[in-house]
Amino acid sequence: MILTLLFSAMLYLLLWGYFILQKKLDFNSSPGDMEVPLSGRPARRTIGRVNSDIQKCMLNIIAGYFFINAAFIIGIDFTATLTYGFIVIIIIAVLAVVVFGMTPANRLLHAYIPLGQIAVVHFVSMIASFSIVNAIYNDEALTTHIIQSMAIMCLGAMVAFYQPTRAIGKVKNRENSL
Amino acid sequence: MIFLSPDFWPVWAALYICALFFCAAMYAHLPFKHTDIKKVGLISLIMMVPFTLFYFQLLSYLNINFETSITVITLLFAGTCFSLIVFMKLLSFEILSKFRLIIGLSLFAYGYYFLLA
């Protein structure tokens, strides 16, 4: 059980490393510095704001998935005792609230990172939160086989959409000469 | 594993339909940057109704009739959603590093197969 919780937490924390490697998150520069000019992003923001926006969105997404997974895991337990329609209505209500709250986070994240990487964040958050909720509620630890397949899938997803940030050369040079 | 059997195609079809609704709710609004966020949120919210109806039915059907663990079904669903995004990216001809994409997708497909085998 502890191994499951640790593995899930590590999997989720890997996202920070993933974005630091791509220089989407920058903890080395001063938070007050302006970000480098990037293609497709005319408005420039301070590095501190970029970091806090991306982190806030990632936390919002995993919090949402905690509720989604909890609704399904707890809901499936009550299929024998409660009527199907009643459970479905409760799950729809939970999911509706969560998704309504997740939409601004998705949009804000899309200002900084492309769709492929948002899908990676969702994928990792979904499986990490599911493992934690399942371990806590059902007391069910992940098997080695599932841990291995989860790790390989996450690694593959991260590699597939790995895209380091590239500054616009011309604008950068012009700024340096000024 | 039963999932690799060709007779199991209706379950795969149901999984893809669920993933389609889920991805539509999560990502379809992203290109519409100038649309009001509340309107977009309401459309996403409405998309969750058919998703829950399909997915919960599938989850309980597989869990009760085939004793498939919820972990496996959730992992399959997460993988299906991700594969839909990959299809979408490939169809939109967005420039991605082909080498990284091939390596990453091979790893992902291997992990997915490893889960099922």
Textual characterization of the structure:
The complex is a heterodimer of chains A (178) and B (117). Chain A has six helices and no strands. Chain A is mainly alpha-helical. The model of chain A has no long low-confidence stretch (mean pLDDT 85). Chain B has 117 residues and is mainly alpha-helical. Chain B is built from four helices and no strands. The model of chain B has no long low-confidence stretch (mean pLDDT 85). At the A-B interface, α2, α3, α4 and α5 of A face α1, α2, α3 and α4 of B.
β-sheet strand percentage of chain B: under 5%
Largest interface summary: A-B, 54 and 55 residues
Number of helices of chain B: 4
Beta strand % of chain A: under 5%
Mean pLDDT across all amino acids of chain B: 85
Unreliable residue runs of chain B: none
Structure classification of chain B = mainly alpha
Give the helix tally of chain A: 6
- Give the C-alpha Rg of chain B: 16 Å
Structural class based on helices, strands and sheet pairing of chain A? mainly alpha
Please, what is the oligomeric state? heterodimer
- Bin the helical content of chain B: over 70%
First-residue to last-residue Cα separation of chain B: 6 Å
Give the biggest sheet of chain A. none
| Straight-line N-to-C gap of chain A | 58 Å
Query: How would you sum up the global shape of chain A?
Result: globular
Mean of all residue-level pLDDT scores of chain A = 85
